């Protein structure tokens, strides 16, 4: 599969999906955009190609009709070019040290001896939705597909840290993976968490996604899972955990991945924040998945509107749907509850009778009342995107 | 003597084969596809081709929205100052000019 990529138009020609969709009358217009490059990477399905080296691959939105995102469709985002392509489990160790009573060099077998913890959690890039910022900002130009809902299995970080015996006076814990910089001055991707965060029950070192070993591009053999927080902390191909007595000063925490230090994490468009903090918990989001934007639908046919909603670790209390651009709202039915870190699917029945253009909107609220803004909140790095999205549907 | 050497080599080969087979279950490997991106022709393209791909594929450029000259200047300077790209002032000017002209607003 060397160098295989193609536009979505080509993809549809081969798949014959356009003909099938036209036959039933629903034609999502974005399927005909020819500027989207698709690519096939190892252990991955055809994904939207944002960049190839290092790979940044976005999930086509139709995969989110599934409650659990299949492993081969989970988005991929690497930062520095030398990414691991071979891991020998006989050689790989998870090293734990620093301000600890002892050093650990855990093999995969060792890791699997810790209590096995499984839960479903949304994985989402901090920059998901960046391409919708206005004015536009530099960075990975993601649509809404830099996210997924995955069932993770692994060992509790706090159990691993307890075995290493974290000493008093520890401040931060840093996490490094097997990827390395292409030039000496490029900062290695190392992330950190405050020690009290690192000791929380729900953070795990995952060695399975959806019951299978991690794909290489999603972090084989193990990655950190910080449920509820953006995936920038979910270090892939994890190899080194260091307990630190001083605050972590690395580039990817001290300089990059920062948000304005205020309740909205936002500043007026174009402005520079006066004070910033490391990005952390995810904002509350919802998205209409079906029908897709710009779909044409025949009148007098029932339409099952379907979407997803999630928040940064506080579940979803309700989702309301508008069929008239936000004038009136009705409550959607929520699907199965897979816990506070998972997304929920929501459903809303609609039987359009009058032809015309309709603006569908969905708005989620989590269990502590956090919801979504009507206008996009802006910050210079393009993080925290959670504007109420609009889906235009034409009834004919 | 020759027979003994052959025998030893055979034993080594079998042992190595056994060890290798034991390890292969533990080795996870992928081969990344070789995907290239062609930039628009224009003055300075050669410099962009040479320097930018040291660290990243050129779709990092084509992915961006059309930025102003000032924004491309910020981005190129970030590559040099923050990420240590070995680009001198003369080449930096050439690269910024190319990006602002071919992938910019023209302002």
Structure description:
The complex is a heterodimer of chains A (396) and B (107). Chain A is mainly β and 396 residues long. In chain A, 10% of the residues lie in helices and 34% in strands. Chain A has helices at 8-15, 17-24, 108-113, 157-164, 195-198, 251-254, and strands at 5-7, 37-40, 46-52, 55-58, 76-77, 86-88, 94-98, 104-106, 116-124, 147-156, 172-177, 190-194, 204-209, 212-213, 223-225, 238-244, 258-260, 276-278, 285-290, 295-297, 303-310, 318-322, 330-331, 333-334, 344-350, 356-365, 390-395. In chain A, the strands form 6 sheets. A 5-stranded antiparallel beta sheet of chain A has the order 1-2-3-4-5. A 5-stranded mixed beta sheet of chain A has the order 8-7-16-11-12. In chain A, strands 9, 10, 13, 14 and 15 form a 5-stranded antiparallel beta sheet that branches. The longest helix of chain A is centred in the N-terminal third of the chain and has 8 residues, at 8-15. By secondary structure, chain B is mainly alpha-helical. Chain B has 5 helices and 1 strand. Chain B has helices at 2-24, 45-52, 59-62, 69-81, 89-102; one strand at 27-29. Chain B starts with a helix and ends in a 5-residue tail after the last helix. Chains A and B meet through β2, β3 and β6 of A and β1 and α4 of B.
């Amino acid at each position: 599969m060397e160098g295989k990529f193609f536009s979505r138009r080509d993809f549809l020609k081969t798949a014959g999906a356009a003909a099938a969709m036209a036959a039933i009358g629903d034609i999502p217009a974005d399927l005909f955009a020819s500027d989207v490059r698709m690519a096939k990477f190892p252990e991955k399905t055809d994904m939207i190609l944002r960049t190839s080296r290092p790979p940044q691959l976005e999930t086509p939105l139709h995969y989110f009709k599934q409650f659990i995102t299949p492993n081969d469709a989970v988005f991929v985002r690497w930062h520095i070019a030398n990414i691991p392509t071979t891991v020998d489990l006989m050689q790989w160790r998870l090293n734990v040290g620093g301000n600890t009573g002892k050093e650990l060099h855990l093999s995969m077998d060792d890791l699997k001896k810790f209590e096995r913890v499984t839960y479903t959690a949304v994985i989402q890039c901090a920059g998901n939705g960046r391409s919708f910022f206005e004015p536009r900002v530099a960075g990975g130009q993601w649509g809404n597909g830099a996210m997924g809902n995955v069932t993770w299995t692994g060992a509790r970080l706090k159990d691993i840290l307890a075995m290493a015996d974290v000493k008093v006076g520890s401040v931060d814990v840093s996490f490094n993976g097997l990827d390395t910089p292409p030039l000496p001055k490029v900062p290695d991707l190392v992330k950190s968490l405050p020690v009290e965060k690192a000791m929380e029950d729900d953070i795990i070192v995952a060695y399975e996604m959806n019951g299978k070993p991690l794909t290489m591009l999603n972090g084989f053999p193990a990655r950190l899972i910080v449920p509820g927080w953006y995936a920038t902390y979910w270090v892939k191909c994890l190899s080194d955990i260091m307990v630190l007595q001083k605050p972590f000063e690395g580039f990817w925490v001290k300089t990059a991945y920062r948000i304005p230090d205020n309740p909205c994490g936002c500043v007026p468009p174009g402005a520079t924040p006066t004070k910033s903090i490391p990005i952390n918990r995810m904002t509350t989001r919802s998205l209409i998945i079906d029908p897709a934007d710009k779909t044409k639908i025949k009148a007098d046919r029932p339409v099952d509107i379907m979407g997803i909603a999630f928040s940064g670790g506080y579940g979803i209390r309700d989702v309301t749907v508008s069929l008239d651009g936000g004038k009136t709202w009705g409550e959607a039915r929520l699907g199965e509850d897979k816990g506070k870190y998972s997304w929920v699917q929501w459903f809303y029945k609609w039987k359009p009778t009058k032809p015309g253009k309709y603006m569908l909107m969905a708005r989620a609220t989590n269990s502590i009342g956090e919801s979504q803004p009507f206008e996009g909140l802006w910050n210079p790095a393009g993080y925290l995107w959670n504007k109420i999205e609009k889906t235009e549907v034409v009834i004919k | 003597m020759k027979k003994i050497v052959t025998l030893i080599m055979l034993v080594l080969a079998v042992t190595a084969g056994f060890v290798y087979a034991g390890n292969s279950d533990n080795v996870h490997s992928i081969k990344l596809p070789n995907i290239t991106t062609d930039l628009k022709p224009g003055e300075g393209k050669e410099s962009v081709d040479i320097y930018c791909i040291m660290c990243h594929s050129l779709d990092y450029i084509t992915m961006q929205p059309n930025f102003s000259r000032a924004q491309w200047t910020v981005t190129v300077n970030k590559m040099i100052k923050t990420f240590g790209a070995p680009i001198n002032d003369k080449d930096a000017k050439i690269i910024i000019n190319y990006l602002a002209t071919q992938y910019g607003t023209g302002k």
